[in-house]
Amino acid sequence: MIFYFSATGNGKYIAETIAAATGDGIVNIADCVQANQYDFALKKEEAVGFVVPVYFVGIPMIAVEFLQKLKVAAARDCYSYAVLNCGGTAGNAAHILRRAFPVNAVFGIEMVSNYVPSYPMESAAEITECLENAEHEIGTIVRHIQSRDAGSFNAVKGRFHRLTTFVGYPLYQHGRKTNKFTVSDACVGCGLCERICPRKAIRIMGGKPAWTIPQCEFCLGCLHRCPAAAINYGKKSAKNGRYVNPNTKL
């Protein structure tokens, strides 16, 4: 069983690819949190995996909440692993995850960076190259999982990983302010942003989205997946492009 959290499709693609090789099912963490579902039973010798993105060199709060509450019933002690996907470095995100739910193995993989509030999207050629490299890395991860290898296989944690997370992660924990989201006149009022928000922070009011709580998950799924590219965060995102993983369906 593979639990994943994904806003733009990177994590879902990883989970689906691993599942195709291992025969496991995949479960959306956001769906579980919204349904208050934390109890699961595994089949005999089934592994439990987690695929989560790296936010500000930590992991999303929704993933922390889920991992802390998760209860897994297994016929025997199960093998567990986590795959951290990031656009740059993972920092000490593995420590945050293991503190919430101890796992036997941690893997790191670089995916397409899409933090457009600060940086422009890479070119189409660079995105294609990144996804091709990721496919190779996922294959290596699958072999480790099938062999039930334990340990740290996180080559993307970067230098000074403890320090970067110590400095960067609180910016996410105490930030995530929804008052910086804006909506342009291009909005068609389709309601997709409201439906996909993992924290149900968005409501369509007067034909346009409005953020009803001061903090959200800051996954930026609403921004990237808006069909009219009408949602922005801060002053730079409007010109920095949008991204959805082309190898999966959201």
CATH architecture of the largest domain: 3-Layer(aba) Sandwich
Shape summary: globular
Distance between the termini: 19 Å
CATH class of the largest domain: Alpha Beta
Unreliable runs: none
Q: What's the total count of β strands?
A: 12
Structural class: alpha/beta
Sequence of strands across the biggest β-sheet: 2-1-4-6-7-8
Radius of gyration: 18 Å
Q: How many domains make up the 3D coordinates? A: 2
CATH structural fold name of the largest domain: Rossmann fold
Q: Mean of residue pLDDT?
A: 95
Largest sheet: 6 strands, parallel
Element order: H for helix, E for strand:
EHEHEEHEEHEHEHEHEEHE
**Count of helix runs:** 8
Estimate the helix proportion, in percent. Answer: 25-40%
Strand content range = 15-25%
Which terms summarize this structure?
single chain, 250 residues, alpha/beta, Rossmann fold, Alpha-Beta Plaits, two-stranded parallel ribbon, 8 helices
Summarize the model shown:
With 250 residues, this protein is an alpha/beta fold. It has helices at residues 10-22, 29-35, 61-69, 93-100, 124-146, 161-173, 192-196, 221-225; strands at 2-4, 26-28, 39-41, 48-53, 71-73, 80-86, 105-110, 151-153, 181-183, 202-205, 208-211, 231-233.
